[in-house]
Amino acid sequence: MTTTTTRLLLALPFLAACAACAGDPPRAITGLVDATEIDVASKVPGRVKALAVREGDAVQEGQALVTIESQEVLSKIDQVTAAVEAARAKLKLARHGARAAEKDQARRALDTARAQAELAKKGWDRASALVATGTITQAMFDDADFKWKAAQDQLAIAQARLELVQLGARSEELEALEALVRQGEGSLAEVRTYGRELSQASPLTGEVAKILVHQGELAATGYPILTLVDRRDAWVTFPVREDLLPGLSVGATIQVEVPAVRRTIAMTVFQVAPLGDFATWRATGEKGRFDLRTFEVKARPAAPDLELRPGMTARFVPAPPAPRS
């Protein structure tokens, strides 16, 4: 055995001890690509009449997605529309007042009531004179008295009727009718809003990720019918141990390798948040070491990258932790 070989064999234990003291370099941290997802739902229940898209289709903002059939909503719209039209007709009638024929009829009714009152007054006068002399009975006088009072009441009613058709509706009545019209128009606007919910359009430019309710099935109120994903807003989430956080503050740039697209993408950290206690990494077998928590680090590319898809894996190598004293 040569002298050089002997020295190398003697130095191996020392080199191994030095490597152990230096510690292993940090390994790559694996994360997942995620993106903004939006559930498309309806405010009203109904049966899915038609689906204009399929899973995986690209959609533009405002594009029709699904049509829902609800006879209850359509019937309610017709009902409220009819009520509003009736209220408007009553208000129009009150503003224009009575027609000429109605006014003429009221005048004739007043003339008739006045003539009947005069005739009843003459009968009452004769009955008064005759009952005083005992020519007629008290019952006959009471009958004449009743006719005279009834004729007076009919005359008062006819006079009030003529005044009403001549003056038209009072301001209070017009205000009440106007309020009734506004109430009906508000209800109509509400039911028409529900009617617009029967046709759902895309709120963004993206991709159909999942269809949850198919054609012919019932869609419940607020239950998602389909899910859209906005691949323009994609990011990567990494679980990072807290001793590897230096250099990963918000605004820092990291190099992220995405195997699915076979390239490394520069991304900017935009959020650092602690995970729950269940995700805490605990040191074992090392006396005097504190438990180390795991943080959620999110980063996104500077510009939208349409090759990134939710669920893809990504990894990056963090800076090594500071040596322990």
List the helices and strands and how they pair.
Layout: H1 3-22, E1 29-41, E2 46-51, E3 58-59, E4 64-69, H2 71-96, H3 100-133, H4 138-167, H5 171-196, E5 199-201, E6 206-211, E7 218-219, E8 224-241, E9 253-258, E10 263-274, E11 294-301, E12 313-316
Helix pairs in contact: 2-5, 3-4
Structural notes for this entry:
The protein has about 325 residues and is an alpha+beta fold. It has helices at about 5-20, 70-95, 100-135, 140-165, 170-195; strands spanning about 30-40, 45-50, 60, 65-70, 200, 205-210, 220, 225-240, 255-260, 265-275, 295-300, 315. The chain folds into 2 domains: about 25-70 and about 210-315, Beta Barrel (OB fold (Dihydrolipoamide Acetyltransferase, E2P)), CATH 2.40.50.100; about 75-195. The strands form 2 sheets. Strands 1, 3, 6, 8, 9, 10, 11 and 12 form an 8-stranded antiparallel β-sheet that branches. Strands 5-4-2-7 form a 4-stranded antiparallel β-sheet, with no helix packed on it. A hairpin with a 4-residue loop joins strand 9 (about 255-260) and strand 10. Mean pLDDT is about 80; it is low at about 1-25 and about 285-290.
Q: Descriptors for this entry?
A:
single chain, 325 residues, alpha+beta, OB fold (Dihydrolipoamide Acetyltransferase, E2P), 2 domains, eight-stranded antiparallel sheet, four-stranded antiparallel sheet, 5 helices, 12 strands, 42% helix, rod-shaped, disordered N terminus
